[in-house]
Amino acid sequence: MKIGIDKLSFFTSDLYLPMADLANARNEDPNKYLIGIGQSKQAVIRNSQDTVTLAANAAMKIVDDEERAKIDLVLFGTESGVDNSKSAAIYLQSLLKINSAASGVELKQACFGLTAGIQLAMGYIALHPDRRVLLVGSDIARYGINTLGEKTQGGGAVAMIMSANPRILEIGTQSTHLTRDIMDFWRPLNRDEALVDGQYSSEEFIQFFKETFNLYLESQDETINDFDALIFHLPYTKMGLKALRAVLENVDNLSVKERLLDKFEDSRRLNREVGNLYTGSLYLSLISLLTAGTLKDGANIGLFSYGSGAEGEFFTGKVVAGYEKMINKNSVKFLENRQAVSVSEYERIYRSFLKPQTDDAKTDFKNDPAPFVFKGQENQKRIYDQNNENRN
């Protein structure tokens, strides 16, 4: 049975910060950001958006009335949860008006949550071939103003519907996995912002990729020549390039090197413009590759997922003939309409985010053009709304 991604979508804020402006404000050479980490723009998430609304705004693009009736499992990958008990999947199911017979859970392991969801969905659909599963990876990457991690912030959500006989990507049944207890990135319960050992995390990322990739090649009796593209979780796009170069060092075939490097450039195009999505980063890279329009039907893609702390997994996907009908450059055209903000405005928005508190509070939701917004809290209950006109 063929199982995989049938629909795929992405959402992020309507605001962005030019990375050159941030570099200048921090007295850094802009090329350190533009080339050194490979980022051009960074999504600036409004305080009226959170993990739930980002996910809802992404998923609404692919969830119609027919899907609302057919979806019976919602898997929500995030490391930016809004409640220590209640799953973000429940909020999402309610906002999208998915049938109440569907079940849902939230999955957490740093940036690995959505990939874990894909593996769960594979098994579920194998047992129930007529079912459809909604999966989302939604996060806001926050490290703090004027910190070392500031230049790798961002945010957004990727949503997908998985099913039998998918129309975008058939997921391979084999994968290789690696788990180690390390402290390269973490966020204690008393913190809104992440802590990271940047150099250590980068080294582990590359090592996890090399180990899982080589183990996959060995177990499946394949070589790097068998892949049309290799794509990565991209906390910043230079990270994926470093990992790719680490396995290209011993490749003598220049055409293979050129092909994989060219496809990597296609795959990081959108991530350069948005920044770090945490759980959604690998899948934004997939969207970037698919919407570039350079893949042939049946192309074999290798995907590397990494979640700090740490888990890594290498798996594959085969592009389905006619995928362009389901996702193409028009799917991400909204990114061209975003507005740039100044560094001072970015800092104001960043500081305006609601912190855990007992008092009632409101966000600046009236200025947010997104369909779904987070309005604030009343009696320590989060208030969401869907209405892009005449908000009050």
Automatic annotation (TrEMBL):
GO terms for molecular function: hydroxymethylglutaryl-CoA synthase activity. (3S)-3-hydroxy-3-methylglutaryl-CoA binds at residues 29, 143, 242, 276. CDD domains: init_cond_enzymes. One of its GO terms (biological process) is acetyl-CoA metabolic process. The active site is at residues 79, 111, 233. Keywords: Transferase. Residues 3-164 form the Hydroxymethylglutaryl-coenzyme A synthase N-terminal domain. The keyword Transferase applies. It comes from the Bacteria. It holds the Pfam family HMG_CoA_synt_N. Residues 170-248, 257-348 form the Hydroxymethylglutaryl-coenzyme A synthase C-terminal domain. Belongs to the thiolase-like superfamily. HMG-CoA synthase family. This is Hydroxymethylglutaryl-CoA synthase. It comes from Pediococcus stilesii.
